[in-house]
Amino acid sequence: MKKHLFLALFLFCCAAAPLRSLGAALQLNPGDHLSLIGGTLADRMQHDGWLETYLVAQFPKHDLVFRNLAVAGDEVALRRRSENFGSPDQWLTKTKTDVILAFFGCNESFAGEAGLDKFKQDVDKFLKDAKTKNYSGKGAPRVVLFAPIANEKLKDPNMPDPAANNANLEKYTAVMAEVAQSNDVPFVDLFHISQQLYTQVAKLDTHLTFNTLHLTDAGDRLLAQAIFAKLIGQKAPTSGFEKLRAAVLDKNAEWHARYRTVDGFNVYGGRSQLKFPKDGKSGPEISNYDIMQDEMAQRDVKTANRDARIWAVAKGGDLKVDDSNLPPVKSIASNKPQIAPFLSGEDAIKHMTVPPGCKVTLFASEENYPELVSPVQMGFDTKGRLWVAAWPSYPELTPTDTVTDKLLVFEDRNHDGKADKMTTFLDGLNCPTGFTFYKDGVLVMQAPDLWFARDTNGDGKADWKERVLMGMDSADSHHTANALVMDPGGATYLSDGVFHRTQVETATGPVRNEDGCIYRLEPLTGKFERYVAYGFANPHGRVFDYWGNDFITDATGNESFFGPAFSGFIDYPKKHAGMKQFWKRPSRPCPGTGLISSRHFPEEFQGNFLNCNVIGFQGIYRVKVTEEGSGLKGETLGVTRVQNAAGKDVEKIEGLVSSDDPNFRPSAVCVAPDGSIYFADWAKPLIGHMQHHIRDPHRDKSHGRIYRITYEGRPLLKVAKVDGEPVGKLLDLLTTPENDVRTRAKIELSKHESPEVIAALKKWVAGLDPKDKDYEHHLTEALWVHQWHNVVDEVFLQRMLRSPDYHARAAATRVLCYWRDRVKDPLTLLEVQVKDESPRVRLEAIRACSFFKTAKAAEVALSALDKETDPNKPDYYIKYCLDETMKQLDKYTKP
Amino acid sequence: MSTCRSLRNLFLAACLSTTVGQPARAEETTNKTFFLPKSPVAAAYVLGRLSTKELSEAPRGEFVYAALLQRKGLDRKYRAEAVEGLAKLHHSDALTELLNALAVLDNKGESSQDVLRDLSTLVLQSPPADLAAKRAALEKTAAASQLPLTRQIAFAGLILADNGGDRVWKETTANPDQQADLILSLPLIRDAKLRSAFYGKVEPLLHLADPPGLRRAAMSSIPSIPGHDVETFTTLAGLLKSGVERETALAGLQRIPRGLWPKESAQGLVESLVSYLQNIPVEGRTETGPVTAFQMATELTTLLPADRAANFNKTLRALGVSVFVIRTIQEQMLYNKTLIVVEAGKPLTIVLINEDSMPHNLVVVKPGAVEEIGLAAEKMTAEPDAQGRLYTPKSPKILQSMKLVEPGHQARLSFVAPTEPGDYQYVCTFPGHWRRMVGTLAVVTDVDAYLARHAAKAPKMTEWKISDFSEDPAKADSASNIPRGKELFSSLACITCHKLGLEGVDYGPELTDVFQRYQNNATLVLQQILEPSLIISNRYQAFDFELNNGDEVAGMILSESAESLMLQTGPAATLMQSVKKADIKTRKARSSSMMPAGLLNALSKEEISNLLAYLKSGGAIPTHEHQHQP
């Protein structure tokens, strides 16, 4: 609180401080259209809106038009988009740009000294080309070139040291200044301006970026003031335009929904050309493009309507935004005219089959909670409340939708297995494909960004949010990052499906990918990298087992994989080769997965992989998981032979649950704090993105259910108190067998200061009983808590690398992989792991070798072969992972 | 966000713990020397991952020699070098090393066949005295190896060691399996005299039904015994007509040079083959045996008088199966072909190759029945029917159907087209798919006439100029369109003149590294395609020659000596021609490239970028890379 006060004071002081004025660098004319281009710095400006607000306020009669065309990760000569997005020139033409505000150099700077020449040429070409263009019809655009901002040194020990990046950024800034001058283009040196600002606020014990790279709202505000002073030659106005800024942000949100529309591959890309009969039968056809471009035209008008309000407010008045002037949108009849009627939430249970002993009850449905529609992911928080991402707008919002997507929170206060309260934590969302809890808030996907949203005043609604990661593509809305989970060590995983072109800026350079991929994000450090670079169609489902092995599912083909084998490092843009599935699934596709870890259920349920399937078999497969060589293998449970109606002997699969209701579409499943299992029913007659028009009127927008499965005759588990517990109590919870409880305990622990947690952890470890049969797992949890808090303890790691339990050794080897830059001689440690008697440990060690950049790492990985009993027939995953590791290390082994 | 440094130190200072942010840039090294682990297993693995070229250039040593002996597709000179190298290292001799290598390859199994065949030449070129000295080892190899080819090489070695077959024939008389191996070794022997000496031993076996393995071996090998072609042809033809070991007989007949086939056997043999083919169901007719029979019969008709030949050919054409390959398109829920045309009543095979990431099938239905069948399939539960097919409703409107084909797999339907002409349809009955995955099976009386009437719409032609591509024409960073580029590389016939990666013909410039050669600049590459004569490197300069005898020759000069020129006159190894300089009247360099301009005119911009992306990839499809593993 105190800090905010400082900052507010500073904002005034700074603005009042004399800035060296060079006179106006930029002349603005009435009616000018200004476009911002560049990477994350410029991309964020639309969400903070300060620079635009200042300029509009300064020129109230100019009726200026701002369009933000920036995309995280953009470079002056590299602006990747999904198919047929339109070229930069096309967009600058569409926006009739008179003035280009160009923010580049940040991503380019990671090429270091070696990239300077190319960068110089690229900027020069960009500036020269611009002079030959005429986007507005009024002549060549005026360009202002902006240097990248410096990286900020933060006190947070989890944040990187900016020195190395800044050395590069400074060189790139100098080159930009030179090229700008030779082309007679105004240049603003944000690098040195930002450094000054960082120094000034550091004195107030605060900071302007949240991750050294990207500005907070306050940072953007200060930078905007400095930019304003440079451009206009006067100090920026400081107050009195909150209403104007609100109008600017409203317009920007509309423009963002248009320029960065989700589902682009269906709006302008390849699948936009899919055509369907207009009458639903056989008449003339109408494509996705036809209708979605009508919607884009509506968004253009909505944006323009908001420009008008900005102008009115700037002039001291106001204007009620009136969207009654939107152009019409073509309509289409359903190509699936006959759909099965919906059963009530309760009646639907009668159509479900469950294993003997199991019982299904209804927890919540749209009948009681109309907001509960199309649940896509769910999870229990540390208070034991069930959060549900509701996606009524699937495939995405229309410009005129009044009901938007939400993050809902359900409570069952009397523990009767039925929801008795629902709060909307976040509203106004579009395609909230995934979320996970972190510290005192929630990370939630709002493509193209990942938000960290918190409720700071305890009313159950989000009132604080930061875009912590930008640039995740959503060219196909249901290929957008989903099924977010925390791994045992505090990292979470985002994903892309085919058609996507993601680019994310990180402290170690831009991360890019084409098509499918799974990414690993450490929220605490901001580290973000490709985790499984693989030719996925649409990964939808990640789940970690008791020892931290992950199962990864590709939805389209319902192909499930043993994660450790193909999550080694590989350089962009390469991908890993095809790998076998760990379980022969009987059918596809799969929208979500889970794992049973609950003593409420009998022994034979423990560790079962759960796989939701929505066509053919409409239910949740229950898969027994057993060890096989270095990997795990799955086997469908509940398969019986029965006689069908024709008296023929056929295979029948019971699953955890299945139904003959054609609208039953289980989409997510998880274990509750009391040990029961909850699953969501997407509840839809039409589900395919491609089989029906994007705007097929039979796409249901009003149903969704949550069910609960209990095991009759077995007591429910005592619900562990997690929220608000002291550190010691939370550590005790790490001995709980249920994965869900331990995960939530670690999320709660992440609210506490790391030194406090680690000090308590050391005491806790000392007090554990070595005779406890799960002692090695408890220790592994202690190692994972270190990882959660980004605290490296090499002595403890070494103890765990040689644990008597191979599962623990494998898990420790994984931790070593992510600590490799901070332990002494990691390859020497891996040399031991790679010859471990357990193939699982060897596999983890081979995988870890792929992250190194030396020939020595290849030697270490290869020595695993000496442990193979028959080198002509090596273990499948070891061979696969070694092949992939060597593919990556080739460039270090070959002269 | 703030931290308490003092608190942190309480615990951390005691041990090695550190809390740090991002690492310093990881240490990066490149290797200056050849990378080879010390363990033989690891070394073999590393060498196995090298390309053939890299392996052939690797610094020599025991592991590299061993790899050179076992790598498929390597020039034989490296095998010889490796044998010598190993002999020197082991203080042994070449033949010992070769026999060791045979044993290793034999142990690896079937995949070693090609290399074994290669090594057989080296073994059998050894001086007979050396072979005689290794007689015991050869006997052991002949008796104990798991692969027939290994055993045959050893038997051939024994024949050479003995300079004749009598001893080894006698030694194997008691063991028909061994004798069969011995007989099958005959084609490996280069010395015709040695082979000829076997005629008297092998010929009688053709007439003995028992043991069948021995007769089959005799039928296979006897065509390699020179001087008895007509007799052999007649005997094998007789066996074929009586249906004895038909495939072996056919294969044997095919080995006899066509010019030596006796005319008088032709008629009877064609009749026999036709009646054999008539009795094979459609789905069997595309198997190797029937295809060989079909080919043999067609070739035999050339020996017949024209009218009789025409009659047979007509019958044969009616028996021939039209094969259509239909692929699914990745992530599009479409078949790549939406029209196939077949003659009413004629057999056809549809091969469905599923390249999508979800399962599909192909069901042939009566005209207009797609919706009815699609809706019915959608209502079905995922319960396989008697044939194991899912989503296949019981309906008289379904003519043919198959099981669901998993991604990466294929299935075929072989059947006789309906006699009733009409637009039949094929459709994927996986729930929902029928709305998009539909094609027409046009059953017509006259395919040519139909195709002429329904000529595919002429593609839109654009005379592309480089100025039409103001932006990066490649957009070649996108991985997903490379497969399409690859298709275009074939369909535009680029592949018939250029090599890219492992495919294509080495005629025009190799394109694997074309992007590197053009500074990774797609515009430059495209410009060269649009204007092939822009830059012509010396090696690919075309010349027109007028010869003294009035002939004209055109081609590129591969090599030039004082007396002659070696010309490449077309895109095939056989199209090389040596021309004496003395015979040349005029020599004129062409100003234009051999490559025609306008090759891209039928393409869209998107397709051009796909083609460029494929060129940029150097022939690798990035998302499904498969490392070459010998």
Task: Give structural attributes.
heterodimer, A: about 900 residues, alpha+beta, Rossmann fold, Neuraminidase, 4 domains, 6-stranded antiparallel sheet, 5-stranded parallel sheet, B: about 625 residues, Immunoglobulin-like, 5 domains, 5-stranded mixed sheet, 5-stranded antiparallel sheet, 26 helices, about 40% helix, globular, disordered N terminus, disordered C terminus
Quick overview:
The complex is a heterodimer of chains A (895) and B (630). Chain A is of the alpha+beta class.
Instruction: Give the helix/strand class of chain B.
Output: alpha+beta
Q: How would a crystallographer describe the biggest sheet of chain B?
A: 5 strands, mixed
| Biggest β-sheet strands, sense, barrel of chain A | 6 strands, antiparallel
CATH topology category name of the largest domain in chain A: Neuraminidase
Counted by DSSP, the helix tally of chain A is: 22
Q: Determine the N-to-C terminus distance of chain B.
A: 55 Å
Instruction: Quickly count the helices of chain B.
Output: 26
- Overall form of chain B: globular
Rg of chain A, Å, rounded: 28 Å
Helix content of chain A: 25-40%
The total number of structural domains of chain B is: 5
Question: Low-confidence parts of chain A, pLDDT < 50 over ≥5 residues?
Answer: 12-22
Q: What percent of residues of chain B are in strands?
A: 5-15%
Q: So what's the overall shape of chain A?
A: globular
Unreliable stretches of chain B, pLDDT < 50, 5 or more residues? 1-26, 623-630
The CATH class of the largest domain in chain A, by name, is: Mainly Beta
Structural notes for this entry:
The complex is a heterodimer of chains A (895) and B (630). Chain A is an alpha+beta fold and 895 residues long. Chain A folds into four domains: 28-238, SGNH hydrolase (Rossmann fold, 3-Layer(aba) Sandwich), CATH 3.40.50.1110; 240-333; 346-711, 6 Propeller (Neuraminidase), CATH 2.120.10.30; 727-893, Leucine-rich Repeat Variant (Alpha Horseshoe), CATH 1.25.10.10. Helices cover 31% and strands 21% of the residues of chain A. In chain A, the strands form ten sheets. In chain A, strands 8, 26, 27, 28, 29 and 32 form a six-stranded antiparallel sheet that branches. In chain A, β4 (142-146), α6 and β5 (187-188) form a beta-alpha-beta unit. The model of chain A is unreliable at 12-22 (pLDDT under 50). With 630 residues, chain B is α+β, with helices and mostly antiparallel strands. Chain B folds into five domains: 40-226, no CATH class; 228-320, no CATH class; 322-453, Cupredoxins -  blue copper proteins (Immunoglobulin-like); 466-536 and 596-624, Orthogonal Bundle (Cytochrome Bc1 Complex, Chain D, domain 2); 542-589, SH3 type barrels (Roll), CATH 2.30.30.100. Chain B has 26 helices and 15 strands. In chain B, α15 (212-221) packs parallel to α17 and α18 packs parallel to α20 (306-319). Chain B is globular, with a radius of gyration of 32 Å. Chains A and B meet through β31, α15, α17, α21 and α22 of A and α1 and α2 of B.
